[in-house]
């Protein structure tokens, strides 16, 4: 499995290789920093789903830096902009695990973003790292959601704890934790049904799942990962805010970055709710998961 | 931000005393606010540019109505243009005079194709049709099972063949429908990226084989700036007949609707408003316009004026 880790380390090299950047295009053939240049940069950001407010803020910071550093050459802007973006995204934050006993990783998000697929990928990743992993089939609502998770369980070679369709997801969490405690499981990854953040009853259900986990293992869940689809526009801000309030999100997984969407909305999210992006999804296969590297992301944001 | 647009326009026009004609200068400032609001609603930046230019052209030199403030006047124009752009309501499925009518659902991963195959089947069944659903997603884990479970729920048969390729499954499904007297065939396909040439080729092959009467592109209403690239690709590869905009039960502004309509010209035929089988509506351009602008009440007031 050495290949897998090598692949992970590559990060987003595919995007980096195609690094004929839009920014580069704007900067080359130009000498001086002027108003048009700022406007074009703002446009690149907006086109990447960064959002108007955050884009304007970023360009504003750029102006300040230019003044402070007494820059005048267009070429000098490139690094400053990358610095600003990396700054906004913050440091890489490692995943939290229990000091002893099983850790619980709860995966949440709106419908169809890639929760179940990401769980399959994570199970494979941690299993490969030598951890004993089980999955909890907490989506008891959507048609064949349990079957889908079971197939991922088989692919990754991990056990899936489940109940019938329509069962209480909190009861599934309870079962999984008890199973884990008796079989020296290291990591429980729990799937949940997709839910739109504006549906109060579904958010209450999620809170209940979390309460049961907290009660059964003090300090758990150790991670609550919010899965965001990179194709999503400004609504992702709302998703982040409300899931954060309801479930105490500790990290973001940004999926579907293998498409042409840039996922720039995570920049806006950092301004409003500080949630570190921890993983990115770059395909439908089991190994299509990468750790999030802010610098790579800043580069990819400007690739064409 | 959005209740915002009307407030900000009021602010912009505050110094504009009295009525008279709107000057270019007045309008330019207002257009900046309109642009911001549309971008924040995820309308594609290119579409915004053209749209704003059009609204601006219409606004300059306009005699402001007695009953409206200049701000309201501009909003009225914005709204009219928006409805016109998204307009021509037609939430009809092209029913073939020679059954079966074939409907092909396509789109990105997770957009809601499988769910909407079943919602459409539910709707058509209510209209007295006898739909057959076809499971052509052989890639996603449990995709066939998902369609089968939904089929059982709504009592609509599901056609699938283990270990066969999607083109062949689609082809056989027509034969099957004919022999069973099913008059509508709804084909569910795997989610795919518009840049995946191999899988886009597969859709072209399915199309060539079954000659669908209706190719529907299923789009998540939360989609951002990329909506235009996606819609443009699917449309140029396949020739899309209509759009289903899903997950409108969320709180997204849904600017993707405007973007997609602007680049493809295809009518938005249906809106998905939930996970349940009945959660399907015809698409209403007026509602969508006020949703994107975030100004339902303001618009109702203006319409009365
Ligand atoms: N291209 C691409 N597709 C992905 C990625 N992650 C997930 N998908 C696809 O997106 C679709 C939805 O994925 P799921 O994992 O079922 O999403 P979910 O959030 O569990 O969906 P619900 O449980 O229905 O809310 C599937 O077709 C996946 O194969 C990714 O990183 N890239
Ligand atoms: N809230 C809401 N959820 C929806 C709507 N339509 C579909 N969904 C949900 O969105 C998720 C994805 O729907 P699917 O029908 O599996 O999407 P798909 O396009 O077939 O996905 P792939 O086959 O993986 O590409 C599921 O959780 C559905 O229940 C809708 O209108 N509103
Ligand atoms: Mg799922
Ligand atoms: Mg599907």
Q: How many strand units of chain B? A: 8
Describe the biggest sheet of chain A?
A: 8 strands, mixed
Shape of chain B: elongated
> How large, in whole angstroms, is the Cα Rg of chain B?
22 Å
Report the portion of residues of chain A in β strands.
5-15%
Mean pLDDT of chain B: 90
Which small compounds were modeled alongside the protein?
guanosine-5'-triphosphate, magnesium ion
User: What is the count of helical runs of chain B?
Assistant: 12
The structure class of chain A reads alpha/beta
Give the helix level of chain B as a range of percent. Answer: 40-55%
Unreliable residue runs of chain A: 1-20
What is the strand and helix layout of this fold?
The complex is a heterodimer of chains A (304) and B (305).
Chain A: H1 2-10, H2 13-17, H3 22-27, H4 35-47, H5 52-68, H6 77-89, E1 103-108, H7 115-128, E2 133-138, H8 145-156, E3 159-161, H9 169-182, E4 187-192, H10 200-216, E5 223-229, H11 235-247, E6 251-255, H12 265-272, E7 277-281, E8 289-291, H13 294-300
Parallel strand pairs in A: 1-4, 1-5, 2-3, 2-4, 5-6, 6-7
Antiparallel strand pairs in A: 7-8
Chain B: H1 3-12, H2 24-40, H3 45-59, H4 70-86, E1 101-107, H5 113-126, E2 131-135, H6 143-154, E3 158-159, H7 166-180, E4 184-188, H8 197-210, E5 214-220, H9 227-238, E6 242-246, H10 256-264, E7 268-272, E8 280-282, H11 285-293, H12 296-304
Parallel strand pairs in B: 1-4, 1-5, 2-3, 2-4, 5-6, 6-7
Antiparallel strand pairs in B: 7-8
Helix pairs in contact in B: 1-2, 1-4, 2-3, 3-4, 4-11, 4-12, 5-6, 7-8, 9-10
The structure holds guanosine-5'-triphosphate (2 copies) and magnesium ion (MG) (2 copies).
What do these coordinates show?
The complex is a heterodimer of chains A (304) and B (305). Chain A has 304 residues and is an alpha/beta fold. Chain A has helices spanning 2-10, 13-17, 22-27, 35-47, 52-68, 77-89, 115-128, 145-156, 169-182, 200-216, 235-247, 265-272, 294-300, and strands spanning 103-108, 133-138, 159-161, 187-192, 223-229, 251-255, 277-281, 289-291. In chain A, β6, α12 and β7 (277-281) form a beta-alpha-beta unit. With 305 residues, chain B is α/β, with parallel strands linked by helices. Helices cover 50% and strands 13% of the residues of chain B. Chain B has helices at residues 3-12, 24-40, 45-59, 70-86, 113-126, 143-154, 166-180, 197-210, 227-238, 256-264, 285-293, 296-304; strands at residues 101-107, 131-135, 158-159, 184-188, 214-220, 242-246, 268-272, 280-282. Chain B has an 8-stranded mixed β-sheet with strand order 3-2-4-1-5-6-7-8, sandwiched between helices. In chain B, α4 (70-86) crosses α11 (285-293). The longest helix of chain B has 17 residues, at 24-40. Chain B is elongated and about 70 Å long. The model of chain B has no long low-confidence stretch (mean pLDDT 90). The structure holds guanosine-5'-triphosphate (GTP) (2 copies) and magnesium ion (MG) (2 copies). One guanosine-5'-triphosphate sits between chains A (109, 111-117, 139, 142, 145, 194, 227, 255-256, 258, 281-284, 288) and B (109-110, 140, 191, 193).
């Amino acid at each position: 499995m050495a290949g897998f880790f090598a692949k992970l380390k590559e990060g987003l090299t595919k995007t980096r290789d195609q690094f004929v950047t839009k920014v580069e295009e704007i900067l080359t053939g130009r000498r001086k920093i002027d108003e048009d240049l700022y406007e074009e940069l703002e446009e690149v950001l907006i086109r990447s789903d960064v959002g108007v407010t955050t884009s304007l803020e970023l360009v504003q910071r750029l102006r300040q830096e230019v003044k402070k550093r007494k820059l005048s050459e267009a070429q000098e802007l490139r690094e400053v902009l990358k610095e600003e973006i990396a700054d906004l995204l913050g440091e890489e934050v490692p995943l939290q695990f229990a000091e002893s006993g099983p850790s619980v990783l709860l995966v949440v998000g709106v419908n169809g973003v890639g929760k179940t697929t990401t769980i399959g990928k994570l199970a494979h990743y941690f299993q490969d790292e030598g951890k004993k992993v089980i999955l909890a089939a907490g989506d008891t609502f959507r048609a064949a959601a349990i079957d889908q998770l079971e197939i991922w369980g088989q692919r990754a070679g991990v056990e899936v704890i489940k109940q019938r369709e329509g069962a209480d997801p909190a009861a599934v969490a309870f079962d999984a934790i008890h199973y884990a405690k008796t079989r020296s499981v290291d990591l429980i990854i729990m799937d949940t049904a997709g839910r739109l953040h504006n549906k109060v009853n579904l958010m209450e259900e999620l809170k209940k799942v979390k309460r049961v986990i907290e009660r059964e293992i003090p300090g758990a869940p150790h991670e609550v990962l919010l899965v965001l689809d990179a194709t999503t526009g400004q609504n992702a801000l709302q998703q982040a805010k409300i899931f954060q309030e309801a479930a105490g999100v500790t990290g973001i997984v940004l999926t579907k970055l293998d498409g042409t969407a840039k996922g720039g909305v995570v920049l806006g999210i950092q301004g409003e709710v500080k949630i570190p992006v921890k993983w990115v999804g770059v395909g439908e296969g089991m190994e299509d998961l990468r750790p999030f590297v802010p610098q790579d992301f800043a580069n990819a944001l400007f690739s064409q | 931000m959005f209740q915002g647009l009307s407030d900000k326009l009021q602010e912009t026009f505050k110094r504009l005393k009295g009525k008279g004609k709107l000057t270019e200068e007045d309008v330019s400032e207002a257009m900046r606010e309109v642009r911001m609001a549309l971008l924040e609603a995820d309308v594609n930046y290119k579409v915004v540019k053209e749209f704003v230019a059009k609204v601006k052209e219409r606004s300059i030199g306009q005699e402001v109505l007695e009953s409206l403030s200049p701000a309201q006047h501009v909003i009225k124009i914005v709204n009219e243009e928006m409805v016109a752009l998204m307009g021509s309501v037609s939430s009809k499925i092209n029913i073939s005079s020679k059954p079966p009518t074939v409907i092909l659902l396509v789109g990105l991963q997770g957009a809601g194709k499988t769910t909407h195959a079943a919602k459409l089947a539910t709707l058509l069944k209510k209209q007295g049709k006898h739909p057959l659903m076809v499971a052509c997603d052989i890639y996603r884990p449990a995709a066939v099972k998902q369609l089968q479970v939904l089929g059982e729920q709504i009592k609509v048969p599901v056609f699938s063949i283990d270990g066969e390729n999607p083109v062949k499954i689609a082809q056989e499904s027509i034969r099957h429908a004919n022999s069973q007297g099913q008059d509508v065939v709804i084909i569910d396909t795997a989610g795919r990226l518009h840049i995946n040439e191999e899988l886009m080729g597969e859709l072209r092959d399915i199309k060539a084989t079954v000659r669908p009467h209706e190719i529907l592109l299923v789009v998540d209403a939360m989609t951002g700036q990329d909506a235009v690239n996606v819609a443009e690709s699917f449309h140029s590869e396949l020739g899309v007949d209509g759009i289903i905009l899903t997950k409108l039960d969320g709180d997204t502004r849904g600017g993707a609707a405007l973007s997609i309509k602007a680049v493809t010209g295809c009518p938005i035929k249906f809106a998905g408003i939930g996970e349940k089988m009945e959660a399907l509506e015809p698409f209403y351009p007026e509602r969508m316009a006020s949703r994107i602008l975030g100004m339902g009440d303001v618009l109702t007031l203006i319409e009365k004026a």
